[in-house]
Amino acid sequence: MSAPSYPLRDSATMLRRNLLHARRYPSMTLGVVAMPIIILLLFVYVFGSSLSAGIGGGGDRAAYIAYVVPGILLMTVGSASTSTAVAVCTDMAEGIVARFRTMAISRSSILIGHVIGSVIQTMISLVLVTGVALAIGFRSNATAVEWVAAAGILALTALALTWLAVGIGLANPTAEAASNAVLPLSFLLPFMSSAFVPVESMPGWIRWFAEYQPFTTVIETLRGLLTGSEIGADGWLALGWGVGLTVLGYLWSRNQFNRSSSR
């Protein structure tokens, strides 16, 4: 490397590169937004009345909208991790990362650009999904402070899942494999949580798993903040999960990135 490296400058350059890619190839970004919106409309207008009766809402579809929106918001965050894993894997497979490593840039900026760009896109997607939820009847009793707290929880969760997705992208040889490997984050864990029905309605070990997995804790925190109800210990648990998964994802991604450079 013939010139000094400036991590902040290089990270900003990589961030701009990833945002330009997202603007030029919007299909993946649109897919991130479209899938949660489709699931929201499906559960509200097809299953809403029946599920509302099951959670004590008396068959009122509006009651079920208030219940399901926090889970849909978290599903949006999970869906965004798919595009991150695919983008990282594609960069590795196409050799652009190998070229970056020969340049006078901070090596950490390559991953940081992906992470920050993904979090920004995720937050924009969350705004769009929230707009659709409000349009179909979602109403919140939250104060401005509670809305900010909910946004902070979502941003932290997005950061955690993005770092995990980066690790998945680095660990898989093809974009298809990376997309499949991230499926638990984007699909399975949200459905096996309190996103759509209370965990009390689930049988046996599924109930135990759903109650203690991190997505349920985050969803219950969001539900409490957005409806103005008590969140109890869920808020601290959500913060703990977010910080812990962020650190785990970062360390794993860094290890995968360093291993790939030695091959």
Written overview of the protein:
- This is Transport permease protein.
- It comes from Streptomyces katsurahamanus.
- By secondary structure, the chain is mostly helical.
- It has helices spanning 7-24, 27-45, 48-54, 61-94, 96-101, 108-135, 144-171, 175-181, 183-191, 204-212, 214-227, 234-262.
- The chain is 79% helix and 0% strand.
- α4 runs antiparallel to α6 and α7 packs parallel to α12 (234-262).
- The chain is elongated and about 65 Å long.
- The model has no long low-confidence stretch (mean pLDDT 86).
How would you summarize this macromolecular structure in one to three sentences?
Keywords: Antibiotic resistance, Cell membrane, Membrane, Transmembrane, Transmembrane helix, Transport. This protein has helices at residues 7-24, 27-45, 48-54, 61-94, 96-101, 108-135, 144-171, 175-181, 183-191, 204-212, 214-227, 234-262. It has 263 residues and is mainly alpha-helical.
